Amino acid sequence: MLVSGNEILQKANKEYYGVGAFNFVNYEMLSSIFEAANEANAPIIVQASEGAIKYLGIELAVGMVKILSSKYPHIPVALHLDHGTSFESCKNALEAGFTSVMIDASHHQFDKNLEITSKVVQMAHKYGVSVEAELGRLMGIEDNINVSEKDAVLINPKEAEVFVKESKVDFLAPAIGTSHGAFKFKGEPKLDFERLEEVKKLTNIPLVLHGASSIPEYIKESFLSTGGDLKGSKGVPFEFLQEAVRGGINKINTDTDLRIAFIAEVRKVANNDNTQFDLRKFFTPGKDAVKKLVVERIKILGSDNKI
Ligand code: G3H
Ligand code: 13P
Ligand code: ZN
């Protein structure tokens, strides 16, 4: 059943588990995510970026989610706008039927971010739709980073407290050392868990981890074995995801892992049979790999059997 993001994440916040928020750009990715949620008996968030919406068309993005959620009526699912860049973009998503939106004004100064986020919250709450915002810059932190450099990029917990109180935002994405894509850390993976706990203590709302892909070894291997190159890639280890959930993260964003898993299978088919041109022969193994990965992540986050 299509529900608001709040319905899914308030429960997760109370019961201390993490819900997977998975990006989709087509039917294959989306249906694999639904199949995984069904297998794991888990609530799920499916999210589309502005780029995904442009690629699919907003009606199709919403329509596919509605059809799949009526196929699996027992699964609570929220359709979320990922990294909305403007009030208008959030408005379009609300009018089209999204049940959660992110306004990402994190590149602005604190006051401007607060002003834009508050406007979106006022509008979205009229629709009964939840809003996510972001504070700090998403980037990896090095071992030798000093305190003032860290403070310049990561979330400031005191600011987070004021931001949440004044904007009335439902969920907050704190920058604690992750970044998007396959190359998150130069040295050993490192996240600022102390800062995360401080933010949770001062805000007590569901928190969101962006850039949470793990680039698990088996997917990397699968991609490399087809001649693909992922040199230097490094993701967020599974234990870090679990520690983040213990520290107050309830929504865990994953896109890159799904893309690599899917494309590795497509590359395998292409390499193994250069006469093949039946799309289904490429996409079926891709879908299976995505489904397996999503089930695995749901279990790591602890949202299996939470329906
Ligand atoms: O956070 C970014 C997501 O991975 C979406 O990426 O803008 O390429 O669709 P995209
Ligand atoms: P990854 O690139 O780590 O998958 O992060 C995705 C994300 O944060 C989407 O908002
Ligand atoms: Zn993100």
Could you provide a short overview of the structure?
This protein is an alpha/beta fold and 307 residues long. It has helices spanning 5-15, 27-40, 50-56, 58-71, 87-96, 110-126, 147-153, 157-167, 193-203, 217-224, 238-246, 256-272, 279-301, and strands at residues 19-23, 44-49, 77-84, 100-103, 130-135, 171-174, 207-209, 249-254. The chain has an eight-stranded parallel β-sheet, sandwiched between helices.
Keywords:
307 residues; binds zinc ion; binds glyceraldehyde-3-phosphate; TIM Barrel
Structure description:
The chain has 307 residues and is an alpha/beta fold. It has a single domain (5-301), classed as TIM Barrel, CATH 3.20.20.70. 52% of the residues lie in helices and 14% in strands. The chain contains 13 helices and 8 strands. Strands 6-5-4-3-2-1-8-7 form an 8-stranded parallel sheet, with helices on both faces. α8 (157-167) runs parallel beside α9 and α10 packs parallel to α12. Residues 23, 82-83, 180-181, 210-213, 253-257 line the site of 1,3-dihydroxyacetonephosphate. The site of glyceraldehyde-3-phosphate has 8 residues, from α3 and β3.
